[in-house]
Amino acid sequence: MTADPATGGVVPALSAQDLLDAVPALRGLDVELRVRDFRRLPSASLGFEDLDALSEALAEAFRNGCDGAVVTQGTDTIEETAYLLDLLHPGDQPVVVTGAMRNPTLPGADGPANVLAAVVAAAAPELRGAGAVVVLGDEIHAARRVRKSHTTSPAAFTSPATGPLGRLYEGRVHLHGPLAPRTALAGPATGPANAVRVGLYTATLGDDGGLLAATAQACDGLVVAAFGVGHVPEGFVDVLERTAARIPVVLASRIGNGPVLEGTYGFPGSERDLLARGLIRGGDLDPYKARLLLRVLLTRGRGAAEIAAAFAATG
Length: 315
What we know:
Blueprint: E1 2-3, E2 10-11, H1 16-21, H2 48-63, E3 69-72, H3 78-87, E4 95-98, H4 111-122, E5 132-136, E6 139-142, E7 147-148, E8 157-158, E9 166-169, E10 172-175, E11 198-202, H5 210-217, E12 221-226, H6 237-244, E13 249-253, H7 271-276, E14 280-281, H8 287-299, H9 304-314
Parallel strand pairs: 3-4, 4-5, 11-12, 12-13, 13-14
Antiparallel strand pairs: 1-2, 5-6, 6-9, 7-8, 9-10
């Protein structure tokens, strides 16, 4: 993004080469860069078709000998796009997603430093097998864990449950520990990119379930962002039981840090009650990422038992 004189705001305008030209330090790296412009959209306007096409472009680059990849985009949807790319990438080459919290018109713009760090990370042997990661502010976050936790702070990206995988300093990647196992679901979808509609419904105080019922009718799969460890208002219970008999319904927590439990609470609308009614436990996946995993599983024709097993393994 950069300033648009017509509107007074910042808009997508810079090419990939423009971004690299703003980072002279890249020329001092022992890295061969192949530059490609893919889309020029605000990240809030990206869709599944864009990400499926990007995943295929990355796969083609890896088939042609690339050792890693850097994806630059707006920060609005990085936590979702990175996880989707992670799910669709079965190889060992790292995919590093980065962006900037301060656009080039602001003092202290962080874009050039983030691009440099991302290139170093993508070339690092330490990240072989890491899948997709997010690199901003010299921190390396696993796509499965990362959250955008502030609207404007340069330190907006965090991994609440685990902390970052590692950091970059003195031009090198330093990991805090071994890489965790990850889930990849590569392979062609069984239909058009937008043929599957997965909804996300958040439990809120005083909700009687009427809007939930209307939402569920339009969905092929549903994620419920529940209170706490997996609780919903009692008025949700019958709706969710009927819906779970028709489509996969995943129970996640709206908190985004910590697991959905299995058997602690027993009142109507508790996690134990809902799982007994056919909902699928989302584990510690946040609702946004649970929605992406469910969508990828559905687009690949996975049935209810396979979906439950995938969430058990991933979450």
